[in-house]
Fold Tetratricopeptide repeat protein.
Amino acid sequence: MAYDLEEQEQLAAMQAFWSKYGTMLMVLLIVAAGSYSGYTWWKRQERVNAAEASGLYTQMQTAVAAKDNTKVQRIAGDVRTKYAKSAYASMTALMAAKSAFDASDLKAAKVHLQWVIDNGNDEYKSIAKLRLSGVLLDEKAYDEGLKLLATSFLPQFTGAVADRKGDILVAQNKIVEARTAYLAALATMDEQHPGRAVVMLKLEAIGGSVPETKAAA
């Protein structure tokens, strides 16, 4: 009898609880289920988008190899429109910029590079700014190029930035400043750096002296 009474009390308490909080709990359960379903769908869609963007990137590589600039530009536009938040957007934009530059379409090259500067991660931004400074050099927009090189870059680009600065200064016939820039570039490059020999040649071409390197101990 005591057991039945205790059971009835528990049942009454449960009924009171559900009467007071049942609706709220059901809403919470529905929201949780909806959130999980939404998250699952989002992750699935993210994988699909990544696969599609990867496919377009592969198509772009083929178009670049075939020197089909028209197709390259079309694919870059598709990736930027549909998958702007993916890493492939910056990668294809950089490739499209190079293709446009090789096709003497500096305007298109600048558009792609500026997009990466505005939307890419720090590494892609540094690459795009360095390449855009090269386009500006070709356009003889020297002051604009130097201004761009004065912005922030990741540390690993320090040598390349100084090298490009030297190129622009040479184009401006500012030889003394150019030597300083090339020396700064060499100071950041070790003996195995692939660009070191080129910088040394440019420095010597404008009458500069290549600093002696310390012999290995």
